[in-house]
Specification:
Chain B: This is Decaprenylphospho-beta-D-erythro-pentofuranosid-2-ulose 2-reductase. The complex is a heterodimer. Chain A is α+β, with helices and mostly antiparallel strands. Chain A has helices at 29-37, 91-98, 116-121, 129-132, 159-164, 199-209, 247-250, 275-288, 300-304, 334-347, 387-400, 415-421, 425-435, 444-449; strands spanning 4-10, 19-25, 44-47, 63-66, 73-77, 82-86, 103-104, 139-145, 151-155, 173-180, 182-183, 188-196, 215-220, 232-239, 292-299, 322-330, 354-359, 373-381, 404-405. Chain B has helices at 19-29, 44-54, 73-82, 99-104, 106-134, 155-175, 207-220, 231-238, 243-248; strands at 10-14, 35-40, 59-64, 88-91, 137-142, 180-187, 224-227. In chain B, helix 1 links the parallel strand 1 (10-14) and strand 2. The chains are: A alpha+beta, B alpha/beta.
Chain lengths: 451, 251
């Protein structure tokens, strides 16, 4: 029996730069090995649920391995707190199965709809990076199918592990992973909310108090100008302990019931997201947040994954799609951050849900994105005139400050800046050259950035 | 690969001395384009065009290509594609001819048709197949408003562009869903060597303006681009003018 195959047009979550590939969906190890062996001269790349914004999981003219067929949870150690599962298992599935047992995933990004394989490939981070680091730090080991057709067990602290964590799927196909879990007493979050009047106020609050919270994030209004530049709403908190719950909820403290609204429509009128509409949204969003509120109980899904409630929300950007720009600059580079925020608000990019947070210690992955400092992420409609050149200028500023942009979100970085931003990129290239001399694992991103 | 804004890293120009193509190449090099192939008949002009683009920082190679020799296209273009992915193919060759002279010299008229239409059919199909195999890329075809409705003053050229335009539209439909994008560009009167000395009609434009429109079209993945944009309206009106009236219009 062979894996299902069809030829499809593929894009990332931002829906820019489509390319065509043969989609192969292996359901067993044998099918996975066959898929890699027979993928042809233009190679293949694993793909999970397609939440990477750019072209990391596209492979024009070649194969894209849809990993969602390898979606079994093989073993749960409910005492020790680990899970062994297929690479195609989503964090959503893990939460559904693990929460009733009192366990939560160690790291979750802004969506539950990413796979474990993708979480390692992008070495994702969450609102707890300043305390817990990135996803791969909680991965004890994984099985990797490499270009030569062998399946290797890769343990932490090995070069292959560190190249694969954040390696964007280019070292091989992850088949299974063993992940260490986070114990929780309830499925609710205890959340503190406060407003910051401007960027300096925001940075001061985050610097002074971030260490008190396991989860911390700030939504920042990049359309606000003048004295209000960088005004923000901080939401921070931790898993609610059992005794924080009202009596009625305490009977079923680990229930996981994310709400789900209707999908965004397939066709959205152009020009929905203008400075005016986004500005209005930002104004309302800022005003509706309480000035200060502590200990509010929120559902997990509301705290971590507000956008998951609207399937296909990426469609609201219309045909042109959108880019997400996320960068990090180190501590001590606050002036660079101020300059960049100033430039973005001056330019009036219609961006809503821009997010600022502080990263903790750097992660071992060679191409892992986080490093200690400040990270800002914003969505911008790709159709905005002059956006490419503007983001190139921001890249220069980020690189000059010793920072970097996030490859899982990139769709437009100038290739020569990659090595400046990721000092271990050459080690990565060298390891790939040895492990996969024919370039079996190839993506549009690796072609574009010469990775 | 093209980036999120449709800007290519590699560009193949068919008609490497075309001023519109070179203006487009300059513009794209200022963004992301690093590899440029200039295909055309070997000449000093072709080499100096390459040198000019090299000075802007691109890796530029020239390749001997003759629109009038379709039998060679497979081999010549095959070699280019074998070197690596081509993100954008800009089909820019074409000749204006001399209407008054060509009406008396059918062989000269056929040369216009063979260059502008037959050559493009061959080069377009060869490029399309290569782009399809790599699963991505754009084929940008320089048509002309002259093809939209043939005029007394240049119907030989106009008819060749009409054929090219129809061919490119159909090719775009054929490639829909393959990851390959075909964009038909219809400039009005462009001030270039080709039009030097001709009377300038209203809405005349420049190679730089066409280049800007091509970049915008790549970003939007447009199927048809008019330069200037107002021509879309003007030509759709002109197309419906009765022939008796059209014949007498001062255009």
């Amino acid at each position: 029996m062979s894996a299902e195959t069809e030829t499809v047009s593929v894009t990332g979550w931002g829906r820019t730069a489509p390319s065509t590939a043969r989609l192969i969906r292996p359901r067993t190890y044998e099918e996975a090995v066959a898929a890699v062996r027979d993928c042809g001269v233009r190679g293949g790349i694993p793909r999970g649920l397609g939440r990477a914004y750019g072209d990391a999981a596209q492979n024009a003219g070649g194969a894209v391995f849809d990993m969602t067929g390898l979606d079994r949870i093989h073993a749960i150690d409910a005492d020790g707190g680990t899970v062994l599962c297929g690479a195609g298992v989503s964090l959503h599935s893990l939460m559904r199965v693990l929460l009733p047992l009192g366990w939560f995933v160690p790291v979750t990004p802004g969506t539950r709809y990413v796979t474990v394989g993708g979480a390692i490939g992008a070495d994702i981070h969450g609102k707890n990076h300043h305390v817990c680091g990135s996803f791969a730090r909680h991965v004890l080991s994984f099985e990797l199918l490499t270009a030569d057709g062998t399946i290797r067990t890769v343990a932490q602290d090995s070069p292959l592990f560190e190249a694969t964590a954040g390696g964007m799927g280019l070292t091989g196909m992850i088949l299974t992973a063993t992940v260490r879990l986070q114990p929780v007493e309830t499925s609710l979050m205890s959340v503190d909310t406060e407003r910051a009047a401007d960027l300096d106020d925001l940075m001061a609050r985050l610097t002074a108090t971030d260490h008190r919270y396991r989860y911390s994030v700030a939504w920042i209004d990049l359309l606000a100008r003048g004295a209000a530049t960088g005004r923000a709403v901080l939401t921070r908190g931790d898993h609610a302990p059992l005794d924080a719950l009202p009596a009625r909820t305490r009977r079923d403290p680990l229930a996981f019931r994310p709400s789900r609204l209707p999908s965004a429509p397939a066709a959205v009128p152009e020009g929905l997201l203008t400075r005016r509409t986004v500005g209005l949204f930002n104004e309302l969003w800022y005003r509706r947040a309480p000035r200060a509120r502590t200990g509010e109980l929120q559902r997990l899904s509301a705290f971590f994954h507000p956008l998951d409630g609207v399937p296909h929300w990426n469609r609201v950007y219309g045909r042109a799609g959108f880019v997400q720009y996320q960068f990090v600059v180190g501590h001590g580079q606050e002036d660079a951050l101020r300059r960049i925020v100033g430039r973005i608000s001056e330019r009036r990019c219609p961006s809503f849900l821009a997010v600022l947070k502080r990263f903790g210690a750097a992660d071992p992955g060679w191409l892992s994105f986080p490093r200690p400092g400040w990270t800002l992420a914003l969505d911008i409609p790709a159709g905005l005139p002059g956006l490419g050149a503007f983001l190139d200028e921001l890249d220069e500023e980020v690189a000059a400050a010793g920072g970097r942009v996030y490859l899982a979100k990139d769709s437009r970085l100038r290739p020569d800046l990659l090595t400046a931003m990721y000092p271990r990129a050459d080690d990565f290239r060298a390891l790939r050259a040895e492990l996969d001399p024919r370039g079996v694992f190839t993506s549009d991103l690796s072609r574009r950035l010469n990775l | 690969m093209k980036d999120a804004f449709g800007i290519p890293q590699s560009l193949l120009v068919l008609g490497g001395t075309s001023e519109i193509a070179l203006a487009t190449a300059r513009r794209l090099i200022a963004r992301r384009t690093r590899t440029v192939w200039l295909a055309g008949r070997p000449s000093a002009d072709l080499e100096s065009a390459a040198a000019e683009l090299r000075a802007l920082g691109a890796d530029v190679r020239t390749v001997a290509f003759d629109a009038l020799d379709p039998d060679s296209h497979e081999v010549v273009l095959g070699k280019v594609f074998a070197e690596g992915d081509v993100d954008v193919v800009l089909l820019a060759f074409g000749i204006l001819g001399d209407q008054a002279h060509d009406e008396r010299d059918p062989a000269a008229a056929v040369r216009v048709a063979r260059t502008n239409y037959t050559g493009a059919v061959s080069a377009g199909l060869v490029s399309a197949r290569a782009l399809q195999a790599q699963g991505h890329g754009s084929l940008v075809v320089l048509s002309s408003v002259a093809g939209e409705r043939a005029r007394r003053s240049n119907f030989i050229y106009g008819s060749s562009k009409a054929g090219l335009d129809a061919f490119a539209q159909g090719l775009g439909d054929a490639l829909h869903g393959t990851g390959v994008h075909v964009m038909v560009v219809r400039p009005g009167f462009v001030r270039t060597r080709m039009t030097a000395g001709l009377d300038e009609p209203p809405l005349a434009t420049t190679p730089e303006a066409v280049a800007t429109a091509v970049e915008l079209g790549l970003r939007r993945r447009s199927e048809t681009v008019w330069v200037p944009g107002l021509l879309r309206v003007v030509m759709s009106a002109l197309r419906h003018v009765p022939r008796g009236v059209f014949r007498r219009l001062p255009i």
